[in-house]
Design a protein that fits this description.
8-stranded parallel β-barrel; 10 helices; alpha/beta; binds 2-phosphoglycolic acid
Length: about 250
């Protein structure tokens, strides 16, 4: 019922001159895309336009990693949702823990960014997750639910295309320490219950991804969990073979 989504997050890696042959290799090895699974690359904004051309007709989708909360105007250095869409993005990450931590993004800003994504017809992937101290203190569920409440405050969601959630425990990002499939499923079911309650019409159709050190070895078990609808993959998405192994691990 919910199509799976395998989303790479390249972060600030690769030049366009590396990305184009990479994409060619990907489409060569991918063959005909499988039905019921979407493959998405969230790339630096400068890579969107050239990759859109390279990936034409491949079925591979593109996303950005951040957007401005404003639509246009005197905001030096910012990139609007409309610009990202114009360059080839269909999705955009919002509130990745690295944006929260290094750029001080708070709930109010993320709420404004989600609204900006909606205005530009981009599907936002809202990233949430507790840090290690919060998990050790037994506060993981409360932290994650508060992040949902804060970022989605007052937002209307009318279709499954309007929101994806990525649960990424901060302690597992880039560390090689993955949440156990049971712990990840547990949190994703808590998120699912909250979404069902908050958006009764569409909550059950919204996709929830797991992210944090997902790799070809651990992907199958994580992706087999009933409330995990895909993955947000950082390090392993830089390598065609690893990314396709994760894509292939979807049952
Ligand atoms: P990782 O990153 O897969 O390298 O842990 C995931 C992410 O930050 O989205």
């Amino acid at each position: 019922m919910r199509p799976k989504l395998i989303a790479g997050n390249w972060k600030m890696n690769k030049l366009v001159s590396d990305a184009l042959p990479w994409a060619e290799e990907l489409t060569g090895e991918l063959g005909t895309p499988r039905t019921g699974i979407e493959l998405l690359l969230c790339v630096p904004a400068t890579h969107l336009h050239p990759l859109r051309q390279e990936l034409q007709d491949s079925g591979v989708r593109l996303g950005a990693q951040d957007l401005s909360s404003h639509d246009e105007g005197a905001y030096t250095g910012e990139i609007s949702g409309a610009m990202l869409r114009d360059a080839g993005a269909d999705f955009v990450l919002v509130g990745h823990s690295e944006r929260r931590r290094y750029h001080g993004e708070d709930d109010a800003l993320l709420n404004a960014k989600l609204r900006a994504a909606q205005r530009s017809w981009l599907t936002p992937i809202l990233c949430i997750g507790e840090d290690e101290e919060e998990r050790d203190a037994g506060r993981a569920n409360a932290v994650v639910l508060a992040q949902l409440e804060g970022a989605l405050d007052g937002l209307e969601i009318n279709s499954a295309r309007e929101l994806v959630i990525a649960y990424e425990p901060v302690w597992s990002i880039g560390t090689g320490r993955t949440a156990t499939p049971a712990d990840a499923q547990n949190m994703c079911s808590v998120i699912r219950a909250w979404l069902d309650d908050r958006f009764p019409e569409v909550g059950n159709r919204l996709r929830i991804l797991y992210g944090g050190s997902m790799n070809p070895m651990n992907a199958a078990e994580l992706l087999a969990q009933p409330d995990i609808d895909g993955g947000l993959i950082g390090g392993a998405s830089l390598d065609v073979t690893d990314l396709l192994a994760i894509y292939g691990a979807v049952q």
